[in-house]
Amino acid sequence: MGRIQLKSVTKSFGDIQVIPPLDLTIEDGEFAVFVGPSGCGKSTLLRMIAGLEDLTSGDIEIDGEIATEVPPAQRGLAMVFQSYALYPHMTVRKNIGFPLRMAKMAQAEIDQRVETAAKSLNLMDYLDRKPADLSGGQRQRVAIGRAIVREPAAFLFDEPLSNLDAALRVGMRLEIGELHERLKTTMIYVTHDQVEAMTMANKIVVLRAGVIEQVGSPLELYHKPRNEFVAGFIGSPKMNLVKGSEAEKHEAATIGIRPEHTDVSMTDGAWKGRVGVAEHLGSDTFIHVHDTGLADMLTVRVNGDISVKHGDTIYLTPQADQIHKFDAQGMRI
Amino acid sequence: MSDRKLPRLLQSPAVILLLIWMLIPLGMTLYFSFIRYVLNNLRRPEWTTPSLSNWRGFGNYEFVLNSKDFLFAIQNSLLIVCSILILTVVLGVLIAVLINKTFPGQGIVRVLLISPFFVMPAVNAVLWINMILDPVLGLQGIAVGSINDMLDTLRNAPLVGWFFSLWPELEPISFRATQTSAYAVIIMVTWQWTPFAVLIFMTSLQSEDQQQKEAAVLDGASIWSQFRFLTLPHLARPIAIVVMIQAIFHLSLYAEIEIVSRGNGNKNLPYLIGEFANNNIGAASATGIFAVILANIVAFFLLRMIGRTLME
Q1: Is the CB of B215 less than 8 angstroms away from the CB of A90?
Q2: How far is A272 from chain B (nearest CA, A)?
Q3: What class does CATH assign to A239-326?
Q4: Residue A219 predicted with pLDDT over 90
């Protein structure tokens, strides 16, 4: 079980309130991702759930019981840190077994649980090595192993992949996803990378300056962003936001159109512009279009085999049913 | 000139200087230890100048080994060094952990804590033995005297007087005495060198990874477990450094021993060398060679011990 509820939780450092009253429920078995730009309070929020940071006011409930005053170790949560936070003087075996040893479990049982965890994480060959002798991905797996053996009510991940190189990151993302499918345990994952959020989450919590901007499934956020911030944050490349007369035609202060929802033609279309940089990814090509008179730059995503040159004239037509409209306050209409 | 010669040539001044620095004193000590060489001898004036014709073989070594103070000096050297090491490391770790947290007045406390290290050894010894440890005029004498006065008053008090009359009168300890002068040296050197240990441990504690601590908190580690499994292993290397440096320094203690009791009941090898060197340079040199051997043995075992217990 691992249902976590935050009830008007706030956090202040001195006079500065970094998290205004915030309510959130994470259901048992959910994979929730807190995502937002750096400094938005997502890590603070996670540390408050873990108990490493005190609440200024409000309550945290775990499985319906108020856990605000419960010491971190007794909340039944396990955390994986960005720096892995492995104990450098202990072998992998001792690292993974440490929480069990602290819980005064019998040595035979510790050994057995460590072996089970190591097997599932492909760490059997490294059990007697020190963390310093492991690669980044292996260290990350040890950190996850140390969390798994505790059989926690929920896992907390604090940007666990940001110290890994791009290829490893994709691999670990899948492993963590698999882990969640296998264990069905609640997971809360903090990241600034919206790709990680979109690929892993059942529920994404978009945060800005300590305020929840939107909570929803990845596709809800993609198709129905509640405001301009979420619209711009979710999706890659970013949504194009257009203000002014073009927006007024749609009776909105701002309209948003995703790069993949724009038709491109070299001969005619709604908006005329000049090709800037074209990024060829193989399957797709991102074309940055300037001089449309609508925004500094629009990005469109087209089929990979298009041949355009820097400086070519290009015509863009937004797909009418994919236009997002926002009012003057930036809220979705 | 080939590729190898130039770097060697450029290194040579430093290497040669170091060799001269190390080898000449060692060589002279070895040389003197094998000849009869005394500063003043009216019957055998030829012994007063060092010369190979006064060759004595291992005679000086035999003389030193058979002298009544030699074994005692070695035991006493080890007693003093080991006691100081244990005390400074234990106190150093405790104080460093204590002042590692932020608190008001932290800067002043740290400066005050470090300051004993800047007192000269002779001054340190004079201050301790006269002002603090003296059984009559020192703090010790005053403290023991006042406690005795207080006990006297309590003995005459109604109701509880019978209880306190069971207590003995306290006797101040004379730290210049044969039995206690080594302890006086241990106390004053520990006071002086604990700040050194604190300083080294403090800098090391500040480089301790805080996320590891947080991970340990979540893993259910108590304060003691965090100290035992994270902080202490983290401090293993600085402890090794402190032990090594102090072992080297304290094997050659001299000023404190001279000032506390002039070697009465409390000699170490350097002090014995000093006593021999009043006249018998040959015996002093032989003792010096024994001191070098002892220092190497101590260093070897200390490094082994620390390496095994703490680095794991």
Answers
A1: no
A2: 53
A3: mainly beta
A4: yes
